[in-house]
Design a protein that fits this description.
This protein is α/β, with parallel strands linked by helices. Helices cover 28% and strands 20% of the residues.
Length: 142
C-alpha cells in the first residue's frame, strides 16, 4: 500500500493506494476493492494483453458496489521508445472516453504524468464524496 499526500486547492489530501491485480481465470477479487474511493486501471503500453484486460475489469466493476467510484485509465512505460509501443494513445483515449474517465500515459522512471494522475483522481474522489467541495473556495477538503 502506498500513502501519499496530494495537494488539492491548497490543502494536502492524504490518499492510500493499493494494487489489485486481475487473475486471468477469476477476474478481479472485489473484496480487495472493499472501501475503494477510486480505481486506477493500469496497463502496460508495450503489452496488448494487459490493455485488453481493462474492458473485462470495467464490466466487473460496473456490476459491483464500486460502479460509481471515480476511475482513471493509466498506460505505463511512456518513457520507452515509440517502436516498443503496442497500444496507441488514441485507442486508450477512446476507451477512457467511452467510460467517462481520465486517461494518462505515465512513466514512473521519468515521473511523466504521475502527479497529474494522482491530483485528477484525488479531486474526483473528493467530488464524488462531497459534490461541490472542490469547486467551493469556502469549503475545506478532508
Amino acid at each position: 500500500m502506498q500513502v501519499r499526500n496530494v495537494p488539492i486547492k491548497g490543502n494536502q489530501v492524504k490518499t492510500r493506494f493499493s494494487e489489485v491485480k486481475q487473475d486471468r481465470l477469476r477476474g478481479i477479487n472485489m473484496m480487495e476493492l472493499k472501501g475503494a474511493h477510486a480505481i486506477f486501471l493500469v496497463y502496460d503500453l508495450t503489452n496488448q494483453e494487459s490493455f485488453e484486460a481493462i474492458t473485462p475489469m470495467l464490466r466487473e466493476i460496473a456490476r459491483s458496489p464500486h460502479a460509481s467510484v471515480p476511475r482513471t485509465l493509466i498506460g505505463t512505460k511512456a518513457d520507452l521508445d515509440l517502436s516498443e509501443r503496442v497500444v496507441e494513445a488514441s485507442t486508450a483515449q477512446k476507451l477512457a472516453n467511452s467510460h467517462n474517465m481520465p486517461f494518462y500515459e505515465t512513466s514512473a522512471r521519468d515521473g511523466i504524468n504521475i502527479e497529474q494522475a494522482y491530483v485528477t483522481t484525488a479531486t474526483a474522489m473528493i467530488k464524488h464524496a462531497n459534490p461541490g467541495a472542490v469547486n467551493s473556495d469556502e469549503k475545506k477538503q478532508a
